[in-house]
Design brief:
- This protein has 222 residues and is of the alpha/beta class.
- The protein starts with 11 loop residues before the first helix and ends with a strand.
- The chain has 7 helices and 9 strands, in the order H-H-E-H-E-H-E-E-H-E-H-E-H-E-E-E.
- The protein has a single domain, classed as 3-Layer(aba) Sandwich (Rossmann fold).
- The chain is globular and about 60 Å long.
Length: 222
Amino acid sequence: MHIDMIKDKIPHKLHEAIAAAGVSELRPAQVKAVDAGLLDGKNLLVCTPTASGKTLIAELAAVSAILNRRGKAVYVVPLKALASEKHNDFKKRYGSFLKVALSIGDFDSSDSYLADYDLIICTAEKLDSLIRHHAPWIMSVAVIIIDEIHLLNDPGRGPTLEILITMLRQMLPKAQLLGLSATIGNPKELADWLGAGLVMDSWRPVKLHQGVYREGVIRFKK
């Protein structure tokens, strides 16, 4: 699907930014997400391979909500390094018309300055801290993106992420929730728990080959 096919469904500035980034065609998972109600505010769990276009799915929902004045967007990632990477990418693409913030630091602060920002990238632990410090701007969040949501099953980060999602759903029942992951063992059950539609696709930009390396030779599975 060419991006012009959704031109009337997304803000003009978003369409221009995507086109300027060299995106002309939507990938299969992106088309499925749009068809599943991505641009209509539907909750979605997106389970597709690495580099299949999950981040753009999140961007379409987040930036549309911000430009349509529905509210802020929060992009939650598991690692500070990944948060910094996303912040740099989003600021480069959308910084000319959106205020993009990175919040990964002091857990003893409500970061009141974030009230002036549109798109906020943070870790799950930081967002959990912001909620517990009663950051007032949280109530103006319209889109919540949980990247690497399969970490719900991680013994270390899982409990914090589960509690965070539960609190957010109670606090912001009208906010759109997007879960992104390349690998989930029970996607249907997780989608049901999230109250979300399930988007699954196996397309990947580079074909994956399976093989065995031994004594300097790789034998690929036919």
